[in-house]
Design a protein that fits this description.
The chain is mainly alpha-helical. The protein has a domain at about 30-83. Helices cover about 90% and strands about 0% of the residues. The longest helix is centred in the N-terminal third of the chain and has 29 residues, at about 5-30. The radius of gyration is 15 Å and the shape is elongated. The chain starts with a helix and ends with a helix.
């Protein structure tokens, strides 16, 4: 087996988990489920950081993903407080 194929098969589960977790977090934010999103945010951060640590995504990409999630949660929270 070539090195590229071997590494790809090792990285695929982590990448897949990261993408799934990120999409689930975005869906929670889109649906307006603030309480569930707050609980799930720590899990999403952990999975994203793990992917960055294992060089599956660039660290700046990981920071950008976390920033998008945090901004989404903050805007939802502020909208809820103003109502």
């Amino acid at each position: 087996m070539r090195q590229n194929d071997k590494r790809r098969t090792q990285r695929f589960p982590i990448r897949n988990q990261m993408k799934t977790t990120y999409k689930k977090a975005l869906k929670l934010l889109k649906d307006g489920k603030i309480a569930e999103a707050e609980k799930f945010l720590a899990t999403a951060y952990k999975v994203i950081d793990t992917a960055a640590k294992k060089h599956i995504i660039h660290p700046n990409n990981a920071n950008r993903k976390k920033s998008v999630l945090a901004r989404g949660l903050n805007t939802l929270s502020s909208k809820k407080k103003t109502k």
